[in-house]
Amino acid sequence: MRVALRWGASLLVALGLGLGSARWMLRHGIAEALVRNGAWQTSRETGSPDAGMYIRAQVAVAGLLALNPSEAMYYRAASDDAGHPLTGDCDFVVEGRDPATRWWSLTAYAADNFLIPNSAERYSFSRTTVARETDGGFRIVVSARPHAGNWLPVAPGEPFDLTLRLYNPEPALTADLAGTPLPRITRTGCS
Predict the structure, then answer these.
(1) Integer Cα distance of 40 and 21 in angstroms
(2) What digits encode the pLDDT tens for the residues 122-164?
(3) Angle at the Cα of 30 (from 67 to 176), degrees rounded to 5?
(4) Beta carbons within 10 angstroms of residue 71's beta carbon
(5) Residue 151 CA to its chain's centroid (Å)
């Protein structure tokens, strides 16, 4: 009876440690595989046949349906350029110029990796839908409060992530994931 209890306890501990460590890896990623570019981070392995089991699991959990890196690059941000977490309690501005790609999109996702429901029914902006500044760049306000122009709604008080998808990136972009110019994310105020 004691042997069975020990085996059972050992099995429960092992199962708990295994599931806990797998969950931690899926949520926090694999630091060695991530490349930082300002507030944005990406992985050379996302969508690649060389991707390890944790990268593949992260893609499956987040629902990216990742394409090969020569076809699409995926950058994700959970904070602004100063390191402030992205939350619906604050307003953020994403501004920049078109990245070196054929097409791009910027989408806000809730903590559960789903689109954020909103009355404007607006979930993203892209190269073809964003209104341009006079210099050709763009400025997108990400906020729970309505704004004129390029406004990307998020839920009040809730954390969110931004995903920047770059389709058909130029070879220079894929060669320098950390140095290619990407939009800046700046917190402009909090309620």
Answers:
(1) 25
(2) 999 999 999 999 999 999 999 999 999 999 999 999 999 999 9
(3) 55
(4) 12
(5) 18
